[in-house]
Amino acid sequence: MKAHWIKVFIAALFEVFWVVGLKHADDFWTWSGTVLSIIISFYGMVMAGRKLPVGTVYAVFVGLGTAGTVISEIIFFGEPFKISKILLILLLLAGVIGLKLVTKDTVQEGADS
User: Which DSSP symbol is given to 50?
Assistant: First the structure.
């Protein structure tokens, strides 16, 4: 099970890359990296969703991606730091973690067929 959740976390990391890339890409190489990040991100999410509950996978993927994007914009691109943003991100992450904790990890039958 842990390997499938690692796929979700890696997919969320690449989601941050492509979302930031959509805003900041301005040449062939940055657009290429953005497209590659989209492919890796969605591939990881789809592969994890084959073995884990899809709703939980999607919620964790989007929650972590949103948090990572907001934090990276603040750290790397000069977005204004607001305590309200950070508190809301923490609330979002608490919800994602809570959802993960209450979801039973079961391998879905027939997922490999």
Answer: T
> Are 99 and 59 contacting, i.e. CB atoms less than 8 angstroms apart?
yes
Q: Could you tell me if 107 and 51 are in contact, meaning their C-beta atoms sit under 8 angstroms apart?
A: yes
Domain borders along the chain are 2-102
Question: Mean pLDDT score of the chain, rounded to an integer?
Answer: 89
Query: Which whole-number Å values give the CA distances from 60 to 33, 38, 63, 86, 105, in the listed order?
Result: 23, 17, 5, 18, 14
The number of residues making up the chain comes to 113
Provide the token pair at 29.
């190489």
State how far the Cα of 70 lies from the Cα of 67, in Å rounded to an integer.
5
pTM: 0.80
